[in-house]
Design brief:
Strands 3-2-1-4-5-10-9-6-7-8 form a ten-stranded mixed β-sheet, with helices on both faces. The protein is an alpha/beta fold and 286 residues long. The longest helix has 21 residues, at 144-164. Helix 1 links the parallel strand 1 and strand 2 (34-40). It is 43% helix and 20% strand. It is globular.
């Protein structure tokens, strides 16, 4: 995150606490990134966006700003992100009701799916300083796409922990043992856990993650990640996604969507480079 040239900060005039601005200020102060403020709306919010811009400039930040609208919230954010060359989008997460989620795809789910760069969804006012950072990986998938994504997740988690002067924890969920499994290693819980821990040794050594901060647990990831996040009182959870149905849908795995409202921390969502490239092409075609 140190090499960010520009951060896109999505402002919401309906949210008076400006949580996204607070996180952007912290990251920009460490990375020296330019902040680009965006109000995605058809209504006039010039006074609001000018006030936020002037406050940040008064604190020594390099800040540009605009108001825009391109058909939908996530499309507006993606278009501005590409136009400004932003390497990170920061937005305050506002959870939808269960009924609304059942009827409509939430805006933040669409943003996580279609934004061609990492997205930080801010959920709490809790300071990052001294806090735990949780990186969620699926080391059971060893293909090159997953391995590359795992490396990115761990690296981003390490950078955030360094920025916050906190500790990096890593979680990977593993399946239950099955006596009928073709591979004997998956017939006993102990051998499954041993295999998963062995798969973590390389990044443990590279990023100096002790065994006590590596959590290999049995069960579904969408239940374990929020539980471990709560146990650690994590301030940020870093999670990734790989397309399951090819580029035709540019769909993300749904774990990030399912856990978003359950997590009691800010959430950083990452995607592999090839999906990012595809999403950039989609934005360019609009």
């Amino acid at each position: 995150m140190q090499a960010l040239p520009c951060i896109l900060v999505v402002l919401d005039p309906k949210q008076p606490d400006d949580l996204a601005v607070k996180r952007a200020r912290l990251i920009a102060s460490a990375s020296q990134a330019r902040l680009h403020l965006l109000v995605a709306s058809k209504d006039d919010h010039d006074a609001y966006i000018t006030r936020i811009q002037q406050e940040l400039q008064g604190q020594g930040m390099v800040v540009t700003a605009e108001q825009a609208w391109h058909d939908s919230l996530h499309q507006t954010i993606a278009c501005v992100q590409q136009a400004e060359g932003c390497g990170l989008v920061i937005k305050q997460h506002v959870p939808d009701s269960a009924l609304k989620r059942a009827l409509l795809t939430p805006d933040d789910w669409k943003l996580m799916r279609y934004c061609p760069c990492p997205v930080l969804l801010v959920k709490t006012e809790a300071p990052w300083t001294g806090g735990n950072v949780l990186a969620a990986v699926d080391v059971g998938n060893a293909d090159i796409e997953h391995r590359t994504l795992h490396a990115s997740i761990i690296q981003h988690g390490h950078q955030i922990a360094a920025l916050a002067e906190g500790n990096l924890h890593v979680i990977s969920a593993h399946p239950s043992a099955m006596l009928s499994a073709a591979d004997p290693a998956f017939q006993l819980k102990e051998t499954i856990e041993a295999r998963y821990r062995a798969a973590c040794k390389q990044f443990q050594a590279e990023f100096n993650i002790p065994d006590g901060q590596l959590h290999i647990e049995e069960g579904p990831a969408d239940a374990l990640i929020p539980r471990v996040c709560h146990q650690l009182n994590a301030v940020v959870t870093v999670i990734g996604t790989v397309a399951r149905t090819g580029f035709s849908g540019a769909l993300m795995g749904n774990t990030a969507e399912v856990v978003l409202d359950a997590l009691e921390s800010d959430v950083l969502v990452l995607k592999p480079d090839d999906i990012i490239d595809h999403l950039e092409q989609l934005v360019a075609q609009r």
